[in-house]
Structure formats: C-alpha cells, structure tokens
Design the sequence.
C-alpha cells in the first residue's frame, strides 16, 4: 500500500497538496531499538507509521524514562517535528519498539501547508489535542493511582499488544515505561507472583491469572 492510503485525510486535501506531500515523504525502515528522534534540538520531521510500533518517552534529569504514548500503523507523530511548535518546552525521544517502516514528512513543507489549508490545520490540531490528552491521562495515573494498579494495567496492555500471556520483557524495560526504578518493579512483580497472578523467569513475565490483574487494575 502506498503513502496515499495511509495518510488519514488524503481525500480531503487538494491534488496539489497531495502531490506536495507525496514528493516530500521519505520512506525509511528502522530496526527495533533505533532512536528516530532525540529531543527538541532534533527536528526530524513528521512520522507516519506504515507498520511496526514506536514509543515516545521523556527522560528525567537523573536519566529515568517514562513512556508518554505509543504509535502504531497509520499513526502520525507531530512531536518529532518540534521546530514547528515553539511552545513545546520539553524534549521527547521517539524510539522503535519493533522493526518499523515509516514515512518522514518534511516539517517545513508540512508547516507551510498548515498555514494555507484549514483542513490540514484542523487535522493537526486534533492530533495535538489527542496526544496531550494521552499525556494528561498518564499524569493522572501517576498522581492518583497506586503502583500495583498501574503495573497490572501495563501488563494487561502488553499482553493485548503482543497477543500472548507470555511477555518477553525485562524488569528494567517495564521500569523505563513506567518512570520508576527497576527495584520497585521487581518487588511488585514478586508480590504478583506470590499472589498467583504472574510467573517470573529470566527475561519473561507470564500472566497466569488475567482476571485477578483486571480486578486489581479496576479496584
């Protein structure tokens, strides 16, 4: 499938705009673990995901990570074009969680189109609002929800994404997603194991009692 079939509002923009986008969209395939965008100093361009999975996260001053949101097929990432948004005062890193194919759209070209097209401008604002809503939801979870409930929710989400109850994921990786220390994750996972909800082996977490995790998440 080509670029046109992946761009969400393709049928709503003019033929000239379609041509301009297509001419300035560069296809790129990246391996799992590749950092595609690294902070505000790096204006990579807009990222449109063709296949795979990306992760957007921020780093604390101490080097601790926390995942803000993920991007999947047909998702468009704006924060990788930070030069378009002068009001953004935090650095976001975009990393491939799986082998991923993307289109990179020139930030300058897209910004010019936003100024000329109400359709593109409104679409972009909707995406921005959605991303900020996801970040606000995350902040609410961190501030108001206990860690055991957050961890239960994370494991269930990973199981749905990977379509398996056997998660090949380290405690360090979970900690990076959740913005905490590996030791905190390890202690809570051991508690889950003692309660019969998961089984732990080196490099894996197997969900044994999905119902119990769901009850804990929603308690």
Sequence:
């Amino acid at each position: 499938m080509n670029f046109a079939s992946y761009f969400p509002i393709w049928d709503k923009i003019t033929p000239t705009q379609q041509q301009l986008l297509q001419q300035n969209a560069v296809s790129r395939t990246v391996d799992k673990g590749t950092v595609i965008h690294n902070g505000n100093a790096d204006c990579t361009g807009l990222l449109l995901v063709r296949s795979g999975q990306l992760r957007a996260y921020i780093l604390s001053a101490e080097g601790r990570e926390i995942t803000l949101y993920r991007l999947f097929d047909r998702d468009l990432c704006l924060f990788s074009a930070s030069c378009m948004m002068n009001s953004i005062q935090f650095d976001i890193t975009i990393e491939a969680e799986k082998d991923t194919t993307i289109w990179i759209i020139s930030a300058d070209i897209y910004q010019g189109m936003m100024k000329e097209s109400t359709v593109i401008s409104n679409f972009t604002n909707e995406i921005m609002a959605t991303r900020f809503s996801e970040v606000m939801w995350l902040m609410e979870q961190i501030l108001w929800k206990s860690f055991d409930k957050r961890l239960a929710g994370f494991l269930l989400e990973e199981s749905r994404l990977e379509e398996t109850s056997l998660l090949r994921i380290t405690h360090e990786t979970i900690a990076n997603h959740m913005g905490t220390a590996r030791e905190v994750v390890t202690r809570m996972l051991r508690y889950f194991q003692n309660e019969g909800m998961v089984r732990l082996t080196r490099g894996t977490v197997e969900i044994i009692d999905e119902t119990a995790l769901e009850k804990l998440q929603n308690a």
